[in-house]
Specification:
It is a peripheral membrane protein. This is ABC-type dipeptide transporter. Its EC number is 7.4.2.9. It is a single chain. By secondary structure, the chain is an alpha/beta fold. It has a domain at about 255-335. The protein is built from twelve helices and twelve strands. The strands form two sheets. Strands 6-7-8-3-9-10-12-11 form an eight-stranded mixed β-sheet, with helices on both faces. It has a four-stranded antiparallel β-sheet with strand order 2-1-4-5, with helices on one face. The radius of gyration is 21 Å and the shape is globular. The two termini are about 40 Å apart.
Length: about 350
């Protein structure tokens, strides 16, 4: 623990709710979620599109779209409640102690500024005492740390002159240059091919290990979760349905939605003629959530049980593992090995 660290987790999200206000109604789109990120660990938030993953990340960075606001909860970073800070103090944390890597590098990078200029601008804002030469050296070091070869030469390039993978690594360098304690990465490899995905993720994880930064990775790719996560948080319809150590969740998941996501992963030892399993139906709209459990209409375990329609399942700690929490009325019926354990 460094001199500036305080006891407890690096990031603690406590009862966070986000609402969307319209003239007709006030709709909650993130509903009472809680999770933590410890120093130096990688936590993955996973779920289908529309589950609330990106909105959770944006709320942490005070970047919610117009009309949306935090309705309840606390966001504690190193013991400080971000929501209690004024806008100026929060702005000094963002990009410095907390950094975010966005999904699309070509829309996140400024097309009329060189890569080097975009990195040194961040340094000039948060570390104004550095000289111009010191900022350039730090920028070059950040590019090298992000896995970019010939970093000095790439600093003079514009985004359109680089490949998608190099642009994504440039965003990683911008996030790393101020040596943040927490990096939030929102689907950082979605637009890249599989080989480049692996290279970018390896560069990002290596950089985090070298700097000691924690990583909060937003993804829908369970393969990435299996390779890189220490802990996993599974979201559905704006709520957390399961969370725990990645290995435990993969081996013995306790929520039908998590099981369905895992069953949809293709396996190398599967019959090539066997169809992939799919989750029936579509995620619900936030404005039309079903009563009780939001996953109920797509759940094979529900079978029209009255409690599933009547009550939102509360989070329950699984026996034998205080870090493994699931929100299913019938989690005990899933106490059998998942497909991930079988040959």
């Amino acid at each position: 623990m460094t001199r500036l660290d305080k006891p407890g987790p690096l990031l603690a999200v406590e009862g966070l709710s986000v609402r969307f206000d319209t003239r007709r109604q006030c709709q909650r789109v993130i509903d009472d979620i809680s999770f933590t990120v410890e120093r130096g660990e990688t936590v993955c938030i996973v779920g289908e599109s529309g589950s609330g993953k990106t909105l959770t990340a944006l709320s942490l960075m005070s970047l919610l779209p117009p009309g949306m606001s935090v309705a309840a909860g606390a966001l504690r970073f190193n013991g400080q409640d971000l929501l209690a800070l004024d806008a100026g103090r929060r702005a000094m944390l963002y990009g410095d102690r907390i950094a975010m890597i966005f999904q699309d590098p070509m829309s996140s990078l400024n097309p009329v500024l060189t890569i080097g200029r975009q990195i040194t601008e961040s340094l000039a804002r948060h570390q104004p005492s550095l000289t111009r030469r010191e900022r350039e050296l730090r920028a070059e070091q950040a590019l090298s740390l992000a896995g970019i070869p010939d970093a000095g030469e790439k600093m003079r390039r514009y985004p359109h002159e680089l490949s998608g993978g190099l642009c994504q690594r440039s965003l990683i360098a911008i996030a790393l240059v101020n040596q943040p304690r927490l990096i939030i990465a929102d689907e950082p490899t979605t637009a890249l091919d599989v080989t480049v995905q692996a290279q970018v993720m390896n560069s990002m994880r290596a950089a985090c290990r070298q700097t000691g930064a924690a990583l909060l990775l937003i993804t829908h790719d369970m393969g990435l979760v299996a390779q890189h996560a220490d802990r996993v948080v599974v979201m559905y319809a704006g709520r957390i349905v399961e969370q725990g150590r990645a290995g435990q969740v993969f081996r013995s998941s306790r929520h039908p939605y998590t099981r369905a996501l895992l069953s949809a992963i293709p396996r190398l030892d599967s019959d090539v003629d066997r169809e992939l399993e799919v989750i029936a139906g579509e995620p619900p709209l936030f404005s039309r959530l079903p009563s009780g459990c939001a996953f109920r209409p797509r759940c094979r375990l529900c079978r029209d049980r009255p409690v599933c329609a009547a009550t939102i399942p509360p989070p329950r700690v699984e026996q034998g593992d205080p870090l493994h929490v699931s929100a299913c009325h019938f989690a005990h019926e899933l106490a059998v090995p998942t497909r991930m354990e079988r040959k």
